[in-house]
Amino acid sequence: MTKSAIKIVDVDESMRQILESLLERDVDITARAVARLHPSLKAASSITRSESRSTLIAQYRHRQNEFRNWRSRVGKRSGDQNAAALVDKQSRIDQMETMVALLTASHVALLRSLGELGGFAKWAAFYERFREARDALQKIDAIPAELESRSTSSEKTPDRPLPVL
Question: In 32, 50, 122, 139, which residue has its Cα 20 to 30 A from 162's Cα atom?
Fold first, then answer.
C-alpha cells in the first residue's frame, strides 16, 4: 500500500469510529458533525466530495433512522407489551430457522436421490440459467458436496430446452 492509501484507510477507520460514537449517543449524523470530531478532516466538504465517505455517512444515517423508528415504536407500548412482542419475534425467528434447516436437509436428500438415479446433470443444466439461485443453494450447503463437483460448467447441456417450473 502507498502512503496515501494507508492514510485514506486510517481516515475512513477513524470516521467509522466517529460515526459509531454518534450513533450510540443518538447525535444527528451529518458531514459537519463528523468533521468537528475528526482529527484530520476539518471541513464538511472534505467528506461530501469523497464518494466513499458520502456513502458511509448515508449508510450510518439510514441506520440511525432505523434505530429511531424502532425506539419510537417501543416508547408507545408498555414494558410488558414490548417483552411479549420480543418473545413472539424470537419465537418466529426460531421457527423460521428450523424451517430453513428442514428445507435444506430435504433439498440435500432430494439431490442425493436425484444423483443416484443419474438425473443430476439435467438438474444442473437447468440451473445453469439460474446461476444466482444455484450459488445461493451452495452457500447454505443445500447442494451435497459429492454432487457439486458434477455441477461444473463442463457438463453437457441438453439438446432440448428444459421445462420452466
Answer: 139
